[in-house]
Design a protein that fits this description.
globular, disordered N terminus, transport, Rossmann fold, MacB-like_ATP-bd, disordered C terminus, P-loop_NTPase, transmembrane transporter activity, alpha/beta, 357 residues
């Protein structure tokens, strides 16, 4: 949490105040420092987003063991986005997805999906949320479908389980089921049971099941994890088609680099927090040739925390603490050059850097 009293202007690592420097046509350093010290007007975080996670924490406790799966995670996903969530095993991806699906409850922080407060839902609201607001696709193909129902019957089942007031008539349920199967390229397998389908076909039917009740968001946990490369591409193409033609917001957890590069936005999680975000756009040259341009960003959470990737910190031996300097158009991060002297007992008051309290 930021201190109530802002720090005085000037370089915090310097014994003397820094003179303001101006850039032609731009603000001076004094202007920037005054702006940084002025509290911003309160605005709800992510007030225009469909999924809002704010300082989300999830702690698992066992016999004398405590595991922090999420450590103050922030995430915003806007309506209509197709977003990939990537990270190493144990980074917190599946924990986050279970919370967003209403299958788990965070230990602290806040999480909202389509206006639902996931920490405040009672049992009845949680059931309605899971049936109507979110759709879910599991990694294991056998977990998504009932083996004794046909593909069309599996897709129609969620519609039959909705509240009587909003339930479609049987002919309408059957028509919607076949429309979804047709959209995802498996309409000709509508009357087959899961055992008669390939793994890729089963997962495309599972996507149709997740879309059955027209949810606000579909969550997919490693939907291509058990498939070969070609089949995985077919399943992900089905997800992209659902996103493009139905406008459904889709959040996919994946280890597959081939999948994560096919979305406009990829969010990486490290140590229970969002660490980097990659945005992709398509550009065209004068001859009409297109290419995809990717740019990776470090994410800055609401507490002002920034995770610097190891490929930046290790070559410069950045660890424990660093020096920050506010410049006209950027923030400079440097190694603490007093660390060795402090360890040797040096107390030179004129050396730049923070002094012991």
């Amino acid at each position: 949490m930021a201190p109530d009293t802002p720090p005085p202007p000037g370089n915090p690592g310097s014994a003397h105040p820094r003179e303001p420097r101006s850039t032609e046509g731009g603000p001076t350093l004094a202007d920037l420092e005054r702006r940084a010290a002025t509290p911003a007007p309160h605005r709800p975080a992510g007030d225009d987003a469909l999924i809002v996670c704010d300082r989300l924490v999830r702690i698992f406790r066992g016999d004398d063991v405590e595991v922090q799966a999420l450590q103050g995670l922030d995430l915003l996903v806007r309506e209509g986005e197709l977003t990939a969530l990537v990270g190493a095993s144990g980074s917190g991806k599946s924990t986050l997805l279970n919370i967003l699906a209403g299958l788990d409850v965070p230990s602290a922080g806040s999480a909202h999906v389509a206006g639902y407060d996931l920490l405040a839902m009672d049992a009845r609201t949680r059931l309605r949320y899971r049936r109507q607001v979110v759709g879910f696709v599991w990694q294991r193909t056998a977990r998504n479908l009932l083996p004794y129902l046909t593909a069309a019957q599996n897709v129609a089942l969620p519609m039959e389980l909705t509240a009587r007031r909003g339930r479609l008539r049987r002919p309408d349920r059957e028509r919607r089921a076949r429309e979804l199967l047709d959209l995802l390229g498996v309409a000709d397998h509508a009357d087959r049971r899961p055992a008669q389908l390939s793994g890729g076909q089963q997962q495309r039917v599972a996507v149709a099941v997740a879309l059955a009740n027209d949810p606000a968001v579909v969550l997919a946990d490693e939907p291509t994890g058990e498939l070969d490369t070609a089949t995985a591409a077919e399943v992900f193409a089905a997800l992209r088609r659902a996103n493009a033609e139905l406008g459904t917001t889709i959040l996919v957890v994946t280890h597959d680099a081939g999948v994560s590069t096919q979305v406009r936005r990829t969010v990486a999680i490290r140590d229970g927090r969002t660490s980097t975000e990659t945005l992709r756009s398509v550009t065209a040259d004068g001859q009409g040739r297109t290419r995809t341009v990717s740019r990776e960003y470090a994410t800055l959470d609401r507490a002002g925390r920034l995770q610097l990737p190891p490929e930046f910190t290790e070559p410069l031996s950045l660890r424990d603490r660093v020096l920050l300097e506010l410049c006209p158009d950027h923030i400079q991060v440097r190694a603490d050059d007093t660390a060795d002297d402090t360890a040797d007992g040096a107390t030179d008051d004129t050396r730049e850097g923070p002094r012991p309290a």
